Amino acid sequence: MGRAATSAETAPRVRPAELGDAHDVARLLGDLGYPCNRDEAAERIAVVRHDPRQHLLLAEIDGDACGLVSLYTLYSVVHGTELARITALVVSPACQRQGIGRRLLREVELISRRSGVSRIEVTSNQQREQAHAFYRDCGYSDGSQRFVKALGD
Predict the structure, then answer these.
(1) Where is the N-acetyltransferase domain (predicted)?
(2) DSSP for residue 2
């Protein structure tokens, strides 16, 4: 699929997610491989909206949700400064390669700069090679290996 030209009418608009967006948030998280239902998505939106260190943004084209990014900021003892961490970024498969992911990253970077953040981190599953190429293309470099332990006890 080639890159589609975006006009002023079809350029993505980015805005904070609202509770009424729960269906779209659930669909987009499912596209990313983290399925949830509308009620679970509504609960997640509510948590983010009540935490000033978190942001959940939707990209829309002509009023239709086509992408999502979430991030939070935290103080890093190691770096001695605030940093931002992107915890999810997804563009609907039908809307990929139209600049929506880049638009979402630009918005995250603007928010981060306004918050005094000097570093943005993003993790991506080792199997998501296209996502890795996308991030590198957007100026992100490879970083540390991440280890995870689920505490399911």
Answers:
(1) 12-153
(2) P
